[in-house]
Specification:
The complex is a heterodimer of chains A (291) and B (313).
Chain A: H1 2-24, H2 26-43, H3 80-115, H4 117-131, H5 135-145, H6 150-176, H7 180-187, H8 192-228, H9 240-247, H10 256-283, H11 285-290
Chain B: H1 2-29, H2 34-39, H3 45-55, H4 61-73, H5 87-122, H6 127-141, H7 144-158, H8 174-208, H9 211-218, H10 223-245, H11 247-260, H12 266-276, H13 279-307
Helix pairs in contact in B: 1-4, 1-13, 5-6, 5-8, 5-10, 5-11, 5-13, 6-8, 7-8, 7-11, 8-10, 8-11, 9-10, 10-13, 11-12, 12-13
Classes of the chains: A mainly alpha (291), B mainly alpha (313).
Amino acid sequence: MAAISADIVVRAPRRRWLRETVRRHPTVVAGSLILLAMVAMAIFAPYLGTVDPIAVAPVKRLRFPSELYWFGTDAYGRDVYSRTLYGARVSLQVGLGVALFATVFGLAIGLVTGFVRLADALLMRVMDGLMSVPPVLLAIALMALTKASLGNVIIAITISEVPRVARLVRGVVLSLREQPFVEAARAAGTPLLRTLWRHILPNTIAPVLVQATYICASAMITEAVLSFIGAGTPPQIPSWGNIMAEGRLYFEIRPYLIIFPGLFLSATVLAVNLVGDGLRDALDPRLARRM
Amino acid sequence: MFAYLVRRLLATIPVMGVVALFVFSLLYIAPGDPAAVIAGDFATAQQIALIHQKLGLDEPFFVRFGHWLWAVLHGDLGISIFTNLPVTQLIGQRLEPTLALTLTTLVVTIVFAVPLGVIAAWKAGTWIDRLVMIVAVAGFSLPAFVLAYLLILAFSIKLDLLPVQGYVSFRDGFLPFIEHLILPSITLGLVYGALIARFTRASMLEVLSQDYIRTAQAKGLANDQVLLRHALKNAAVPIATVIGIGIALLISGVIVTETVFAIPGIGRLTVDAILRRDYPIIQGVVLLFSAAYVLVNLLVDVSYTLLDPRVRY
């Protein structure tokens, strides 16, 4: 008897919590679900009825979507369904990679410039300069220098995103260093690095995390733009931007070549944006009211 | 005011200096030897060395940077590797379509987005607000070229209302000029409009919660008076700021939009230059767009004094 009632007690609130979350934050839940689905799709792409995404079959070129080829085939006879599913891998790698690296470098630069006056004068001038080049243009210019590869795309987009994170972190650090608890820590003789690590860094996490989700979303779009204009990942890699770039020539007769990868890209970016909005609402109530 | 203007103008010099240094480094780091390209396929090592000397390619980095900067300040952006024409001339030829596209988009977007943001803030929490915000989030998430193809598919191919691609100068007729700009402007303006609408709503919400708004309403002012004269005026500075910062989105968008709609502007020039690795053109375009961006934001800064008489310099 006791065992059964304990069971009920444990289960009911959990289910209520779930229902309550869905009711109160429908967009965040929807975003998370889409994102989870995309991640699962990227990981299990080989087991989801796909064929080799780069296998060329000239006989079967430009077939319309059918039972056999769910999303049709492209100009080289490659299966667009398989290419789209594998494309999730590229987009997610770029999105997460750029978000991670831009955050790490932006945090480092922001922390240093917030505390060291000389570094501030020098580094922030460079950051201001980089920030006055529109990000996509900066990434394009950098890609023109190197050969097309996934790694280079991630590096180029990261460089164009770092200044904004650095500026954000610097702003937070500048306001934090005037706070009594930081002054107290300094007065108590805490070494600079330890102050940064224990007192400043934890307080920058919330705004940086929110910023990271938006960077992730915009990095995925930038990757697609780069690939679309021919300055991104090498053409043989099935990224969403590449599939659409190849579909450009045939758009008027085979619109599905652009529509399927376009929908997947938009859905993923939307999902990340929704999760970002939810994070912002949860972590920064003041900002949440404003937006 | 004048002193502020001068100070603000001077402050752009270090920023543009960093941009110039970055842009010059592009060519400096770029793979390939310009002398070998100029000399042609049958040049001897000696001939290449001679051109090296003539162009000053053997000199140290900062000496070359100095020469290059001096030329840029005199309006010389170098010679395109591929077409052998001056970069300034190539950019000049492409200026009109890009200006036409960005300016119409800028005006139309602001005219639509700011009122939408105001209405969303006024009706906060209602379905109108929700709808505007959903469209705004969707606007952030829909990449420009996906939207462009959806628009072409709907309005040009299925409904046959608007031309698929191309650009017609306003000198060749106003109606075709506008017809060719409608879809590109929507494509280019959506993200920008989403940003402006969201920000307008946010700053209006902040202002609307102030005491003087309640006072204005309590003394029986009409809603439009409260909204426009009391609220929007006070929310104008942050809105102007985001209009300026958002220009970066327009510039990035121009490259994609001109590619999709086959508009022979600077964006298209950029893409062609990238595919051919024509570094002098890439340099010129990055420099031009960055200067435009910095200039617009300078103007926005100056406009604060007009928008808000409390701001004095």
